[in-house]
C-alpha cells in the first residue's frame, strides 16, 4: 500500500536507456556482427538510435534492407555475442538504484516493461542485483505483442492491481510515449536515454533530467 500522498501506486520502467546504460555493450555487439559478416562497422551514435524495438530490429536496421537475406544470420551472431558480453560495461544510470529504493520505501510497486528479450533482461537485472526490486518484468517476447502495444503494460497493471490513473510509465523513447498513450497511463521521459531527439519528437507531457525528479513526481 503506497504511503499517504503518493500520486502513483505503480511505476513501470523501460530498461535500455532508462534504468540501465547498455549502449556500449549493444553497439559493440552489433559491430561484432558487422565485422564477422565482413561489413563496415557503424558509428555507435548511429546504433544508439536503432535501439528500442528489440534485438532483431536493432540488427536489421544495422544491416539495412538490402541485406534482408542475411538478417537471420546477423541476429544469431548478435544473440550469441551479446549474451556473453551484456554486462561488460552495462550499469544502472546514476541515481536509479537510489530512486528504486526510495519508491519501494513509499510502498510503490515497481516493474519493468522492455522490448529486450525476457531472458536477456533478467540476466542483466540479476547481474546488477536489481531483479528482486520488481513485482513483474515483461520482455519483448513475453507476450504475442510488444511495445507500443499496451498489452505488456496491461499485464503489469494486472500483476500490481493498479488502475490506469495511478500508473506511471518511465521511458526514453517515442515508443515508450506511444505505449503510455495506448495504455491510458501517465508518462515521464528521461533526457539521458539512447535517442533524446526521438523522445522529444513524440511530444511527451514531461521529461526529467535527474532521477530525483521522478521521485518528486511520484511522491506528489
Structural notes for this entry:
The protein has about 220 residues and is of the alpha/beta class. It has two domains: about 10-20 and about 90-220, Rossmann fold (3-Layer(aba) Sandwich); about 25-85. About 45% of the residues lie in helices and about 15% in strands. The chain has ten helices and eight strands. The protein has helices at about 25-35, 45-50, 55-65, 70-85, 95-105, 120-125, 150-160, 175-185, 195-200, 210-220; strands at about 10-15, 20, 90, 110-115, 135-140, 165-170, 185-190, 205-210. Strands 5-4-1-6-7-8 form a six-stranded parallel β-sheet, with helices on both faces. It has a two-stranded antiparallel ribbon with strand order 2-3. Helix 9 (about 195-200) links the parallel strand 7 and strand 8. The longest helix has 15 residues, at about 70-85. The chain is elongated, with a radius of gyration of 17 Å.
Topology as H/E string?
Answer: EEHHHHEHEHEHEHEHEH
What is the CATH architecture annotation of the largest domain? 3-Layer(aba) Sandwich
**CATH fold-level label of the largest domain:** Rossmann fold
Main-sheet strand order equals: 5-4-1-6-7-8
